[in-house]
Amino acid sequence: MSREKIELLQGTLDMLILRTLLFGPAHGHTIAHAIERGSADVLQVEHGSLYPALHRLVRQGLLAAKDGISENNRKAKFYRLTPKGRKHLLNESSKWDRLTEAIGRIMRPSETGS
């Protein structure tokens, strides 16, 4: 079955990166594939969006980065969630839940009893 891939908005990508790293440190390629697999390959993570987002999250103190070796024996930068990043993810997840519920009420009023 062919599915159309959807590009992510910046804030959404940031949240998905943080969520992915809840499971432990990972390098960029692994993060991108985890998001794509987790979305049943509907969401597409472009490297041109991923790496600027990772660098921005490090600058904000939400992620920490450390050099290491990937499973392919190549140099890679591994990213991990900081305590500040965990707190930010919790706040963003709560906002996301409220946003999706509100949009759902507008898009499908008959299903929500409105």
Task: Provide a short characterization of the protein structure.
The protein is built from 5 helices and 5 strands, in the order βαβαβαββαα. The chain has 114 residues and is α+β, with helices and mostly antiparallel strands. It has one domain (6-112): Arc Repressor Mutant, subunit A, CATH 1.10.10.
Word description of this protein:
It contains five helices and five strands, in the order E-H-E-H-E-H-E-E-H-H. It is globular. By secondary structure, it is α+β, with helices and mostly antiparallel strands. The strands form two sheets. It has a three-stranded antiparallel β-sheet. A two-stranded parallel sheet has the order 1-3. The mean pLDDT is 88. It starts with 5 loop residues before the first strand and ends with a helix. 56% of the residues lie in helices and 18% in strands. The protein has helices at residues 10-20, 28-38, 47-59, 83-107, 109-112; strands at residues 6-7, 26-27, 43-44, 63-69, 75-81. It has a single domain (6-112), classed as Arc Repressor Mutant, subunit A.
